[in-house]
Write a structure and sequence with these properties.
- The protein has 14 helices and no strands.
- By secondary structure, it is mostly helical.
Length: 305
Amino acid sequence: NIGYNIYNKQTLNAIALPWLVSWVQLAVGAVWVLGLWAVRLRKVPTVPKEALKAMVPVAAAHTLGHVSTVLSLGAVAVSFTHVIKSMEPFFNVVASAVILKSVFPIPVYISLLPVVVGVIIASVSEVSFTWGGFISAMVSNFAFTARNIFSKMSMNAATGAETKNLGPVNVFGILSIISTLLLAPLVLIFEGAKIKSTWLAATAGTAAVISQPQLLTLLLASGLFFQTYQEVAFLALGSLHPVSHSVANTIKRVVIIITSIIVFSNPVTPAAMIGSSVAILGVLLYSLTKNHYDQKAKAESAKAS
């Protein structure tokens, strides 16, 4: 994840084409998974048409979430985008209550208050703040929440008797392929007319900021790191206890924020540091609280049966 964030930001600093960068990253993932299937290093999934149809809304939400994240990372500091994205659990619990009618114990909702307060403090004191970057990060929270909701709603169709080898990593691979196809026309609409001129301005002439081989390397590296960190995240989720995963996820975000500040020399105010810390620790508190009540509900259910 650190590698992805660094290479992605370096790419966006060189060329202001976030839609194209987003598409290349998804396309690299699609080629990666198709290659693994072709050489049989990964079992090829069997997916009926109904299951594929059910995945399209999930892929659409995934596409929107990814593009919005890249737009935000291009507009503001990497550290600030990750602070805003720490609000994703807040969107999740609200959407679960409204759409899925899934209500959590009151302490779970209370545990989210530090996240909201921390994000507010960090936002008002962020040196690199722009409304475009802030709104894009918020849209990504909404989109990834929608992806989770659509995934739960389409779970039955995607796990029928006719499906085979459809584990989490293969599901993400299929989503990458669908998302690549969905995003291609949007890239042409939003950036098609300026791709060539922007690319040449960045790589050719006396004003060039980077060579073409270097830019291609950054693009491909960001795509490869994006795909592999997502796959590793799925593997970690399946291998770790929920509490351990929550702690590891919190440490990951902290390391990303600190590393990005060091690599890109982003100025950070004391208030922004406090707000970021409160928000990240709030996410950990929420994760631990939610896990506690999930385990309690499972124990009570097992006892009742």
